[in-house]
């Protein structure tokens, strides 16, 4: 009998014993094409450069607490990330994963306003149908009703505006651009409702992952969001934990939207699964407010900036940039989109096929014309996950309540090294 406490306590999971390129191998020798359990494995499972970087770093120094020392891989990784980062992002704070990154971003926003003498700024605005992680602060920002439900009494009060979800919410006769401006303007209305002097940050995923299934914003949406944040002095936090690190065809997903945030969160593809690591990037304006003020960021975990994790991420980033893998994600993503359209665009239960790069979503509906979701009681996602696993495919199906409307999608996020036949 196993003593591991799994997330799904009613199912028996295969034991992973090996990884080879895009495949995971279980104890019975069965191979599974990894099309993105959670969009982590961007380089596949047997990248030599990353494995050797991890081995060599453990030999040198496995751990040094960042309260006392920095480390060579952390310094080199921060430099390389900033070389490629959009806008004025200038400093990198390393954490162990995505929830820690968004949690730290919220606390950094709060501390920034304290340091510059605006203590009344305390509200975070995020979007419905979003996911920012499972720790209580990150869960408070997330707008997924199902994930929040049982913890609701413990969550921090944050408000949520509409996501940019063209397929389901654009009105008849409305252009994509007009739709994007209309939903972006909800941010301004919410800032005015709360009182601009009380709002500290707006948080959003450039391409919504787990909750909606690879839904990018329409053209112009994020430019309007950036304008509104600037107008009211509100910090823009972009959560690229799932969509970042090349997955959408750009190293940073927001490059596609032509804007840069004040704080950017990354994880998953940063360590590509070889080590648990995340990061929060911020502008020098924010960093200097703390440096010239209290001199201490009031947040930290034991494993921030872990030398082995940062060494792995440095090797991942070198692989991504030297082999132009984001470009490959863009190209292979278009092939995947065409293949999905050829196979499913006439399927009566496929409502939409969308995404960017190697980050694709298939929305499932019971009726195409009415875009009617399936009855949630069917538990479609669980059934698809099981059927896919039996067939040797790992993908990420989700059923969820979306503002009272249920919905199902399948997320596909394969490694960037995937080939056409696979
Ligand atoms: N933010 C987004 C957009 C995510 O998709 C996730 C995880 O799926 C997180 C944050 C949380 O990351 P982690 O699971 O590494 O804590």
Give the averaged pLDDT, no decimals: 96
CATH H-level superfamily title of the largest domain: Type I PLP-dependent aspartate aminotransferase-like (Major domain)
Share of residues in helices: 25-40%
Bound molecules: pyridoxal-5'-phosphate
Query: What overall form do the CA principal axes indicate?
Result: globular
What is the first-to-last residue Cα distance?
36 Å
**Biggest β-sheet strands, sense, barrel:** 7 strands, mixed
The portion of residues forming beta strands comes to 15-25%
Structural class based on helices, strands and sheet pairing = alpha/beta
Overall tally of domains: 2
Order of helices and strands: EEEHHEHEHHEHHEEEHEEEHHHEEHEEE
Map the helices and strands.
Blueprint: E1 16-20, E2 23-26, E3 31-34, H1 48-60, H2 72-84, E4 89-95, H3 98-115, E5 123-127, H4 136-141, H5 145-148, E6 159-161, H6 166-169, H7 176-194, E7 199-204, E8 207-208, E9 215-216, H8 221-232, E10 235-239, E11 263-266, E12 278-283, H9 284-291, H10 307-322, H11 325-344, E13 350-356, E14 359-364, H12 380-390, E15 393-394, E16 396-402, E17 405-412
Helix pairs in contact: 1-10, 2-10, 3-9, 7-8
Bound molecules: pyridoxal-5'-phosphate.
Residues 38, 97-99, 102, 131-133, 205, 209-210, 239, 241-242, 267 line the site of pyridoxal-5'-phosphate.
């Amino acid at each position: 009998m196993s003593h591991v406490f799994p997330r799904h306590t009613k199912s028996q999971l295969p034991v992973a014993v090996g990884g080879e390129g895009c495949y995971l191998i279980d104890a019975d020798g069965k191979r599974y094409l990894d099309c993105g359990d959670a969009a982590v494995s961007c380089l596949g499972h047997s990248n030599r450069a990353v494995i050797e970087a991890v081995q060599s770093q453990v030999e040198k120094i496995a751990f040094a607490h960042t309260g006392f020392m920095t480390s060579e891989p952390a310094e080199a990784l921060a430099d390389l990330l900033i070389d490629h980062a959009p806008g004025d992002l200038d400093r990198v704070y390393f954490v162990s994963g995505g929830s820690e990154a968004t949690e730290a971003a919220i606390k950094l926003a709060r501390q920034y306003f304290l340091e510059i003498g605006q203590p009344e700024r305390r509200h975070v605005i995020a979007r419905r149908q979003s996911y920012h992680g499972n720790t209580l602060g990150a869960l408070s920002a997330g707008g997924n009703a199902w994930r929040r439900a049982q913890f609701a009494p413990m969550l921090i009060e944050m408000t949520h505006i509409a996501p940019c979800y063209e397929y389901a919410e654009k009105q008849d006769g409305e252009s994509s651009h007009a739709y994007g401006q209309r939903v972006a303007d909800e941010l301004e209305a919410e800032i005015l409702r709360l009182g601009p002097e009380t709002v500290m940050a707006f948080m959003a995923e450039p391409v919504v992952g787990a909750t909606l299934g690879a839904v990018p914003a329409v053209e112009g949406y994020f430019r309007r969001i950036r304008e509104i944040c600037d107008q009211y002095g509100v910090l823009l936090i972009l959560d690229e934990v799932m969509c970042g690190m090349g997955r959408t065809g750009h190293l940073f997903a927001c490059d596609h939207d032509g804007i840069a945030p004040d704080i950017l969160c990354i994880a998953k593809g940063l360590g590509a699964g070889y080590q648990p690591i995340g990061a929060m990037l911020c502008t020098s304006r924010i960093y200097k407010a703390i440096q010239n003020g209290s001199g201490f960021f009031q947040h930290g975990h034991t494993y921030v900036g872990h030398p082995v994790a940062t060494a792995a991420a440095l090797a991942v980033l070198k692989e991504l940039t030297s082999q132009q893998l984001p470009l490959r994600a863009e190209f292979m993503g278009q092939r995947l989109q065409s293949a999905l359209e050829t196979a499913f665009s006439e399927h009566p239960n496929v409502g939409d096929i969308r995404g960017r790069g190697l980050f694709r979503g298939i929305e499932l509906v019971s009726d195409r014309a009415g875009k009617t979701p399936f009855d949630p009681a069917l538990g479609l996602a669980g059934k698809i996950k099981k059927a896919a696993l039996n067939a040797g495919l790992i993908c990420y199906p989700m059923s969820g309540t979306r503002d009272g409307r249920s919905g199902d999608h399948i997320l596909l996020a394969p490694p960037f090294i995937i080939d056409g036949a696979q």
